[in-house]
Each structure stands twice: as C-alpha cells, then as structure tokens.
Amino acid sequence: MKNIKRIKVPVIEGLQDMSLQELDLTMExxxxxxxxxxxxxxxxxxxxxxCNGSVARxxxxxxxxxxxxxxxxxxxxxxxxxxSWEDSCCEFFITNPFDGTYYNFELTCxxxxxxxNGPGRQDRTPLDPSVVGRVIRYSSLERKPxxxxxxxxxxxxxxxxxxxxxxxxxxxxxxxxxxNFYKCGDLTAHPHFLSWxxxxxxxxxxxxxxxxxxxxxx
Length: 218
Hints:
Layout: E1 6-8, H1 20-30, E2 32-35, E3 38-39, E4 50-57, E5 61-75, E6 89-95, E7 102-108, E8 113-118, E9 125-126, H2 129-132, E10 136-139, E11 146-162, E12 176-184, E13 193-195, E14 213-216
Parallel strand pairs: 1-14
Antiparallel strand pairs: 2-4, 3-13, 4-5, 5-11, 6-7, 6-12, 7-8, 8-9, 10-11, 12-13, 12-14
C-alpha cells in the first residue's frame, strides 16, 4: 500500500509505573500524537466523534492513550474478552513482525479489554485471561455499566501493553512494526468506524493488516 502513515514512537522510561494523571501529563508533553479521523465509510456510518491519541514506549511496554469527545456513552461489556467493539471503544491493532499474525486490543470507555491474535478476521484466538490481565489499562470513567444517548461526553483511556505478549523481545526490538488505531461503537446510538491509517474496503472492516500504518520503534 502506498502513502501509509508513519509515526515515530518515543522512549519514555517508567510509563508502566505511572498513574493515569501522571501518564496524561507525560504523554501530552513527550509522546507522539495521532488523530483517529479517517471516516472511510461515511455512507454506512456518517457520524465521526473526535478522537485523538498519543503513543510512546518504555523498555518493556508500549503505551497507547486516547482522548475522545462525542455523542453517547455505552459500556455493556464488563468482563475482559467480551464484545468490546459494540461499546464506546478505542482499538489498537499491531503485527507480530516474525510470524505473520497480528494482535487486536479493543478497550472500552470503562476499561474492559478484548485481546486476540491470528492471521485474519476469521482465525482469532483470544488471549488467555492471565495474559490480558498483564495489559495495564486506565479509564477516566468509573468501571460500571453505562448506556446514555443524546449527550456529549469526554473521556480518556490508556493501555500499556508488554512487548512480550505481542511476541516482541524488549531487548531486541524491531526497527518498526505495522499497526493501526481505531475508534468504534457498533451498537451506540450513533455507530461509527474511524481509523488512523485509511482503510480501503467497501464496508467497515478493521481486520485488514494490508492497510496498517507503520510504527517506528527505534
């Protein structure tokens, strides 16, 4: 794919030990910024909330933070590895540079996380709950069920993913990996499907690694 977006991921030591407030300030000052603003399917889902993010890494973790402002708030999936994409959700997909698979991390507005691995949409293997539990995540919202429509909300979520669980040796990082950042809410009152790097499919489909952008790690 030509003209893919690229982002240089800066090193910020100690990210995995910070509180949400510390992360928010540190990421604002030092992380690389991105906008999840590509509305690839305006006929299917015309609504586009505002979603901006930042990404950085420590020696051991990759940190992805999202700031969202938009209509509706839906949080029905309270357990990990549930149907996160149906809620108010921010997602990060990243390739394993060694085996041809990719990981999807789908984080709801209240911090529930779906994580799986596989070569394509139809061949996903959910990560074991003990592995999902190693992903540090924070939300600015209380972890409780929500379904509020027709109002504007602002919220922040962040996940810190150990390199080891995505098949990357933190002592031997690749120069770059492919990935994409997404914002969705399939069953919200205003469904939406936004991406960082454009996706060229006729219908909404995030599971298309050929449309991933590039994250430069060193």
